[in-house]
Amino acid sequence: MTGTTVASLTRGELVRRLAHGGICLRLPPFVFRVQSSIPVVAEGIAALYSEYEWFPDGSEFSDFHVAVVKGRPFPKPLCVFEMDGMQPFTPLAAGEAFAFLEWGLNWCVTSYCHTWITVHSAVLERHGRVLIMPAPPGSGKSTLCAALVLNGWRLLSDEMALLDPATGLVTPSPRPVSLKNQSIEIIRKLAPSVVMGPIAYDTMKGNVAHMRAPADSLRRADEAALPAWVVFPRFVADAPASLEARGKATSFMQLAENSFNQSVHGRRGFEALSDLIGRCDCYDFSYGRLDDAIAVFSKLPMPE
């Protein structure tokens, strides 16, 4: 970190900048200009992005210009996500504005950033090697990701692996971890001092809150690393933890299905994912208790 952090702004100044022209934020490896006059957006940024850099007007190029603006006020206040003036999504309830911002930031990256092959997955690092966990919603991916982060793993991303097809390395993009419903209280009980952002109630995903990324993960956001494991997690209530090796061919197919843009890269993308699977150990993992899951992941063997 070399610039001024969001924590250096008073709440009033943050609110003013967001509402009038927006604030330029470095959310590695991208720079976003974020604008909103909705109070919960400022609340979320103050809580979860306090250690991220911001830049004065005109001093830094922004990869994306985004906004969450007020929609119609009646019969229920709504908010709208904008990117460069476009409104790609249906408006949501105003109380979902910060969650909407988070989802919108993810959409910007997966839709427009083709320097990397992007794969929908949680991504963590330990001892210089990367764990990739692709999974659909409801699999317990984010809950498991948060628990591992709180037990010594470095957060690269809760949402996407950014795979460099030239080097095979994964570029970190550490941002808040999205938690839903019971997972919010589960993680709070696991780590009472953890910082959570505002809760968006009754969204299409239920109640949603975000856990702040660890400061060390942010400090090391420029440290790419080589994948070692691809694990497909699945939460099964009250089930014992089970880690089972799976075949490379089916692992490749499922990883490709979770990629947002592998087809954009054509043959190069196919070969990059194939190389990733070739160098990684691949597993299916089911679990019902986080303590058991943490114990299993602490003993993951390094690939030969």
Q: In terms of per-residue confidence, which ranges show pLDDT below 50 for 5 or more consecutive residues?
A: none
Helix/strand-derived class? alpha+beta
The end-to-end span amounts to: 35 Å
Number of domains: 2
Helix content: 25-40%
Q: Helical element count?
A: 9
**SSE arrangement, N to C:** EHEEHEEEEHEEHEEEEHEEHEEHHEH
Average pLDDT works out at 96
Biggest β-sheet: count, sense, barrel? 8 strands, mixed
Number of strands: 18
Task: Give me the Rg, rounded.
Answer: 19 Å
| General shape | globular
Q: Strand percentage, roughly?
A: 25-35%
Put the structure in a nutshell.
The protein has helices at 11-19, 39-48, 97-112, 141-149, 182-190, 215-219, 248-257, 266-279, 290-297; strands at residues 4-5, 23-27, 30-35, 53-55, 64-70, 78-83, 92-93, 117-126, 129-134, 154-157, 160-163, 170-171, 177-180, 200-203, 206-211, 226-235, 242-245, 281-287.
Labels describing this entry:
304 residues, eight-stranded mixed beta sheet, seven-stranded mixed beta sheet
Characterization of the model:
By secondary structure, this protein is of the alpha+beta class. The chain folds into two domains: 4-112, no CATH class; 117-175 and 213-297, no CATH class. The chain has helices at residues 11-19, 39-48, 97-112, 141-149, 182-190, 215-219, 248-257, 266-279, 290-297, and strands at 4-5, 23-27, 30-35, 53-55, 64-70, 78-83, 92-93, 117-126, 129-134, 154-157, 160-163, 170-171, 177-180, 200-203, 206-211, 226-235, 242-245, 281-287. The strands form three sheets. Strands 8, 9, 10, 11, 12, 16, 17 and 18 form an eight-stranded mixed β-sheet that branches. A hairpin with an 8-residue loop joins strand 6 and strand 7 (92-93). Helix 2 (39-48) crosses helix 3 and helix 4 (141-149) packs across helix 9.
